[in-house]
Amino acid sequence: MTNATQPEATLDERQPSQVELDRRAFRRKQNARSLLISIASTIIFAVLVWLLLINSPGWSDVQRSFFDLDTAISSFPQIIVGLWLNIQVLFFAAILVGIFGSLLAIARTLRGAVFAPFRLGAAIYTDFFRGIPLLLVLYLVGFGVPALGFTERLPMQFWGTIALTLTYSSYVAEVLRAGIEAVHPSQRMAARSLGLGYSKTLRLVVLPQAVRKVTPALMNDFVSMQKDVGLISVLGAVDAIRAAQIEVASVYNFTPYVVAGILFVLLSWPMIRLTDWYTARAQRREQMGGQV
Amino acid sequence: MSEHTSRPVLRVTGVHKKFGDTAVLKGIDIEVARHEVVVLIGASGSGKSTLLKTVNLLEGVDDGQIFLQGDDITDPRVNADRIRARIGVVFQHYNLFPHLSVLKNITLASRNVFKIDKATAEARGRELLRRIGLEEKATEYPDRLSGGQQQRVAIARAIATEPELLLLDEITSALDPQLVGEVLDLVGELKQSGSTIMMATHEMSFARRVADRVIFLSQGRIVEAGPPEQIFDDPQQPETKTFLSRLRAAEPGA
Ligand SMILES: Nc1ncnc2c1ncn2[C@@H]1O[C@H](COP(=O)(O)OP(=O)(O)OP(=O)(O)O)[C@@H](O)[C@H]1O
Ligand SMILES: [Mg+2]
């Protein structure tokens, strides 16, 4: 049987035809035009919003109490110190969530009657902690558990980390479980037929593929956690928000909150961009696979 | 080793298998000798895949015994993972691990089941890749390979740990016709090099070329077994005749 398509010269070896050159010129012109339009419309929109804002009746009051440069500068050091605490809590909570969330997800996907209690326990856990507001978990863990008196007095950021871990593990477990179930059963079978046992199959074949499938969703959960780590301030831990609150109370000006807000946005921004980039790349890959 | 040469690599005796109420295997007896290639043929649903799965312990049996080199592998006390590690399997769909490179696919079992060190396993993996003509694809991921190349890698993965028995289940039926040849050639080469193989296939011309023995299955029973010339040119059972003539009518090339 002969191949129907003749071998062609690759595109970069060939000089493109006039038709193709015309098409490319047209596309370039088209792109330049839409770029100009989008820049112009963005500028016009921004100016309109700005004009609306500064011409509003209460603008000068708002400016004084929310956007005061001197207050921003004077409160900045304390807020940065507080943010460092947020980052530390985030770091440990993320690691704990990774471990605990994976264990929960695995428990939920175990098969066989022996594991029924694990499955049930994990299911009840995830249902409960996905339903209960994080704020309540913080109060219960932060004020309730120490009151039991099992432990020495521990810093509030410790209990904050525990509360965040409890809640976010349930989110992450659900995401991971979806990933594990999306790995085709034939992959397990192929691994088992090579002589890999249950846990090696899980670790070397199923989990790596599952994590890959749900990476964008996991990154999203991480971004949410980056913000929610600010909630530990309700326990009295002096994080960025609590530090801002202290400043607000002493200078009777809300600018420190704005400073803290901007810092939180800056903190999560790289991760947000990374998530977008990764999701777009994964989508491109899949579409490429679809054409083959 | 030499004292066992007379012992069959695989002995299946009186194997029964049911799925729910349907009996899929109804008393199968097969022996496969060392270096022998046994080909299973039969209509769709006749139980070929099920038989191969029971031999690899991916399905349990409802009665009968299966011996691998004399060990009763249907004994519930055996370690199923150890048994599976001694048998190589290739399925119809190439089932390579998409998150691992070609070389990592091939060395996964060597390193994690047989605990062979990385350098040795990879050297051996590259050697295998050279043998199947895919040396330059070692670091590629499976989805960058053609179907025929993927299936050859799957075969390399199955033989990387030098299994005592190789099970192949319709390894060419998901392939475009022009890719079938390269995969079958590789199986022919394995036979030359002395592998012990039990395979299910619909490629009758290939079965005739490579088989030492052909077994015709119908509705979970062995209807007829013998050397390929006998089964294909002079079948004794009416059922075998009907099956083969239908097949020839369907594809005159075979
Ligand atoms: N997991 C299962 N559960 C229920 N029935 C099954 C299962 N696997 C196979 N069967 C049934 O067992 C019978 C034999 O199937 P098997 O896959 O062994 O046939 P086969 O000879 O390999 O067919 P083919 O040539 O189409 O691959 C079929 O009737 C099939 O429907
Ligand atoms: Mg089959």
Tell me what you see in this structure.
By secondary structure, chain A is an all-alpha fold. Chain A folds into 2 domains: 18-52; 71-286, MetI-like fold (Orthogonal Bundle). Chain A is built from 10 helices and no strands. The longest helix of chain A has 41 residues, at 69-109. Chain A starts with 17 loop residues before the first helix and ends with a helix. The longest helix of chain B has 16 residues, at 177-192. In chain B, helix 3 crosses helix 4, helix 3 (102-112) runs parallel beside helix 5 (147-159) and helix 5 runs parallel beside helix 6. Chain B is of the alpha/beta class and 254 residues long. Chain B has helices spanning 48-55, 80-85, 102-112, 118-131, 147-159, 177-192, 204-210, 228-233, 238-250; strands at 10-19, 22-32, 37-42, 63-68, 71-72, 87-90, 165-169, 197-200, 213-218, 221-226. Chain B has one domain (3-96, 165-250): Rossmann fold. Chain B is 37% helix and 24% strand. In chain B, the strands form 2 sheets. Chain B has a 6-stranded mixed beta sheet with strand order 6-7-8-3-9-10, with helices on both faces. Chain B contains 9 helices and 10 strands. Chain B starts with 9 loop residues before the first strand and ends with a helix. In chain B, strand 1 and strand 2 (22-32) form a beta hairpin. Chains A and B meet through helix 7 and helix 8 of A and helix 2 and helix 3 of B. Bound molecules: adenosine-5'-triphosphate and magnesium ion (MG). Adenosine-5'-triphosphate is lined by residues 19, 24, 42, 44-50, 170 of chain B.
CATH superfamily of the largest domain in chain A: MetI-like
Detail the poorly predicted runs of chain A: 1-9
> Given the helix and strand composition of chain B, which structural class is it?
alpha/beta
CATH structural fold name of chain B: Rossmann fold
Strand content of chain B: 15-25%
Q: Give the SSE string of chain B.
A: EEEHEEHEHHHEHEHEEHH
Helical fraction of chain B equals 25-40%
Q: How many β-strands of chain A, per DSSP? A: 0
Largest inter-chain interface? A-B, 20 and 26 residues
The count of DSSP E runs of length 2 or more, i.e. the number of strands of chain B, is: 10
Overall residue-averaged pLDDT value of chain B: 90
CATH class of chain B: Alpha Beta
Shape of chain A: flat
Query: How far is it from the N-terminal to the C-terminal residue of chain A, by CA?
Result: 22 Å
How much helicity do the residues of chain A have? over 70%
Low-pLDDT runs of chain B: none
Main beta-sheet strand count, sense and barrel state of chain B: 6 strands, mixed
Radius of gyration of chain B: 18 Å
Count, helices of chain B: 9
CATH architecture level-2 label of the largest domain in chain A: Orthogonal Bundle
